[in-house]
């Protein structure tokens, strides 16, 4: 009888074959009856910024300490080998895992069973197709959505609910024979991080923004311009400060900033710096300040000017 490996990934975005990468992967192993027999989870260093951190809540300080996908490919493959892969919205997880395996030099296509598609058969009266809606319809508890391990556990329990109606079959994942010794790196490995950082600003200073922030980037650009700063889409040695969704970000802008010893600050830090700049003698009065002319940066498309 078939055994199963329930998987879930958190990613930097949706472009599996493009620039987006896996940032967390979890596997929950099930026996033929749907009982949990093992689980494994690790963060993955994507070598780029983490994308929508407000969704997956992974800190760059933790991801920086994680192995690359190539380093964990063997450990992951070992936990999938001989088992039917299961995921909620399998097309998404399989697309990312296949792309990551290919980039690691392992040309394998991930296939399996999708609990979202199977819901048409087992949960015909559900209210929606999401994992939360399917779990609610099946009476399964979903804790901490958008955590790979919590989502994989919930999907495993949901799949166990399906298995009460009988065995579900699929093609087992092949044994790849890769080295399987990778250390798991979990969320929180970096402990408490960051400190409030204040960088004195003067009108005319160049600022650069990076990452998906809690407020739209256009809002921050407008605030910076309104305070007399210059917004630029790329980092140079003359950049005064880089404002990041997460100051430990792995983005290319952040790497360049560290190389140039340009400070990287959080949104909250930058808001405080703007408040101090606005309160400084000679600060412009917004109601009478002309609207700055704004153009697009030719390299990035981000608005610049002021």
TrEMBL record:
Residues 284-306 are annotated as: Disordered. It comes from the Bacteria. CDD domains: DEDDh. This is DNA polymerase III subunit epsilon. The lineage of its organism: Bacteria, Bacillati, Actinomycetota, Actinomycetes, Pseudonocardiales. One of its GO terms (cellular component) is cytosol. Keywords: Exonuclease, Hydrolase, Nuclease. GO terms for molecular function: 3'-5' exonuclease activity; nucleic acid binding. The keyword Hydrolase applies. It comes from Saccharothrix syringae. Pfam families: RNase_T. Residues 3-168 form the Exonuclease domain. PANTHER family: DNA POLYMERASE III SUBUNIT EPSILON (PTHR30231), PROTEIN NEN2 (PTHR30231:SF4).
């Amino acid at each position: 009888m078939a055994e199963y490996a329930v998987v879930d990934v958190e990613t930097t975005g949706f472009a599996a074959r493009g620039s987006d990468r896996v940032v967390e992967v979890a596997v929950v192993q099930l026996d033929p009856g749907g009982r949990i027999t093992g689980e494994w989870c690790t963060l993955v260093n994507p070598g780029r910024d983490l994308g929508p951190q407000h969704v997956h809540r992974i800190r760059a300080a933790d991801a920086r300490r994680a192995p690359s996908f190539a380093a964990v490919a063997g450990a992951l493959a070992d936990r999938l080998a001989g088992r039917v892969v299961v995921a909620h919205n399998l097309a998404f997880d399989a697309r990312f895992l296949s792309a990551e395996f290919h980039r690691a030099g392992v040309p394998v296509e991930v296939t399996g069973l999708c609990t979202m598609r199977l819901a048409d058969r087992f949960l015909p009266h559900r209210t929606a197709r999401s994992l939360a809606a399917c779990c609610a319809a099946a009476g399964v508890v979903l804790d901490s959505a958008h955590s790979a391990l919590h989502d994989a556990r919930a999907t495993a329990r949901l799949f166990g609910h399906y298995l009460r109606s009988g065995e579900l079959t699929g093609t087992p994942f092949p044994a790849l024979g890769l080295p399987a010794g990778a250390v798991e790196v979990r969320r929180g490995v970096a402990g408490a991080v960051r400190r409030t950082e204040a960088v004195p600003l003067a009108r005319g200073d160049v600022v650069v923004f990076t990452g998906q922030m809690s407020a739209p980037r256009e809002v921050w650009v407008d605030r910076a311009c309104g305070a007399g700063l210059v917004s630029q889409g790329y980092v140079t040695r003359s950049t005064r400060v880089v404002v990041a969704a997460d100051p430990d970000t792995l983005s290319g802008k952040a790497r360049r900033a560290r190389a140039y010893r340009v400070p990287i600050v959080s949104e909250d830090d930058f808001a405080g710096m703007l408040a101090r700049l606005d309160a400084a003698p000679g600060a412009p009065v917004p109601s009478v300040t002309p609207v700055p002319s704004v153009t697009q940066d030719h390299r990035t498309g981000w608005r610049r000017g002021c």
